[in-house]
Amino acid sequence: MNLVYSDSQGNVFDHPDFLALGRNAEMITEIMEDELIPLPEGATLVSLPFTRPVGIDAETGDMKLVPGDYHAVGALLPQGFTRLLLPGYVKSDKTKALPLFGYTAVVWKDEAFYVAARLTDNPYFWNPIHCDVTELESQVKTLTAKYPENRLYAHLSNCALGYECLTASNTFLQRWEGAVPVSYSCNAGCFGCISEQPDESGFVAPQTRMNFKPQIEEITQIMLEHLRTPDSIISFGQGCEGEPSTQAALIIPAIKQVREQTKMGYININTNAGLTDHIRGIVDAGLDLMRVSTISALDDHYNAYYKPRAYTLKNVEKSLRYATDKGVITSINYLVFPGVTDREEEIEAMIEFVRRTGLKLIQLRNLNIDPESYLGIIPKARGELLGMKQMIEIFEQELPDVVLGSYSHTPKFYASDRNTTMVL
């Protein structure tokens, strides 16, 4: 398997004499054949600025930098695929941070690109190729014309057409999981926040956070338009907003009003679940699904990344337990990172957390971050690094009643033969 690298113009090459390497946190490591799958449809190859590619000289067996002005290359995976290794590289400028993406090791073998990843969910629904731009533009015009005073539709039109957000696009295409953002504020200061970054962070937020407080009518209009089919999902908590439960005073009456008019579809919230009292009110209003974002079940790691304001990981656990006990299908949005999530102590803590909270689903989501910056803020490993592949296998063995996936599903998914949909 040959090293893949790029020049300063972004042209991609495979090295005839260097074998590819990956990274597990700081450790540069060999890539195993059973860690590789063909580059998925919808994946993107990107050049990593401020880096030098590292490979193994096939003739000498020595680890070497590729000489010249060249950069490492990584793959950005579509939903449904979990990264197993980072690209093999070293920083050429340690003062520079990589943009907030989830870089995956990529190699060239058998005349094709392969990535160190695993299929963990059906990629069909979140493959950009299935979003027809012409149809989307038409639907944006239709719904913004139908609701000219609705600021949420205007906001989401930029998310769909400008940022190419698939959840926002679904809102206009009126299918699958759609978005209804509600919050301009947050009770956490996430290190890798994609909608708001302090000037001194060194990161550029790839999205702009909403800057207004919507009215209940604006929220219910979007919900009622979207909840038209049995399998539709409308979700509070998007990348373009803060923490939705801070706006419980809007969400609770909106859910109640919508459920007075239709029982169709499912109402979901993507949340950090730190505001337990607010979550209880939202659950009691008629919530169907809840996905809680977390990066760890260990307090010191969780706090280092999320920087929670006036809540703790224990509050998150209480919120999940309450929702589960009330019949809500609960899951976690588990931000995973090779060399961290697969630490022995992280795996043990997460297994116990899942058992205590009664989760139905672990959504494995590749953390979009500059690796060096992330590793610089979290606690050092205390136990062995087991590898992402083994971590997934341990979860499957220790949590047989919990589904491993990548995104939210309707209840019938849990009763079906999921293996029939897991195809490349």
UniProtKB/TrEMBL annotation:
State a single Pfam family of this protein. Radical_SAM
Name the lineage.
Bacteria, Bacillati, Bacillota, Bacilli, Bacillales
Q: Extract the CDD domains matched here.
A: Radical_SAM
- Where the record annotates domain Radical SAM core, the positions are 181-351
This chain's source organism reads Paenibacillus violae
Q: Which UniProt keywords apply?
A: 4Fe-4S, Iron, Iron-sulfur, Metal-binding, S-adenosyl-L-methionine
Look up keyword Zinc and say if it applies.
Answer: no
Signal peptide start and end residues? none
Protein name according to UniProt: Radical SAM protein
Q: What cofactor requirement does the entry state?
A: [4Fe-4S] cluster
